[in-house]
Backbone:
């Protein structure tokens, strides 16, 4: 399977991805508080935590900063910056395709044919 369909994402994951595409397309990290504000969820909402875990597990986002300063807000960023400006879902789908293509091996390509 070369593409991960975005139809498998839940409502909260889609909201979060839209925020990342809109404000973090250049690779900037977005704090947990800002994500909560833009999606209309409380910072400690279980849905927010689950959605961030799901997006991280899929490789679409990663934790911002390798060695955060103690007491600094938790932040996340897209796994890689998105070029240009286009429709958000197309940009995310392009990112997924590129990630999968990088992990593709000739054996997997032959199996799909």
Residues:
């Amino acid at each position: 399977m070369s593409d991960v369909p975005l139809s498998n994402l839940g409502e909260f994951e889609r909201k979060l991805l839209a925020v990342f595409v809109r404000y973090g397309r250049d690779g900037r990290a977005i704090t947990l508080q800002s994500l909560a504000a833009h999606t209309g969820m409380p910072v400690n909402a279980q849905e927010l935590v689950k959605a961030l875990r799901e997006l991280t597990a899929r490789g679409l986002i990663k934790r911002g900063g390798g060695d955060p300063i103690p007491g600094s807000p938790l932040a996340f960023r897209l796994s890689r910056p998105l070029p240009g400006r286009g429709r958000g879902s197309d940009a995310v789908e392009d990112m997924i395709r590129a990630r999968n293509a990088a992990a593709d091996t000739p054996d997997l390509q032959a199996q799909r044919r």
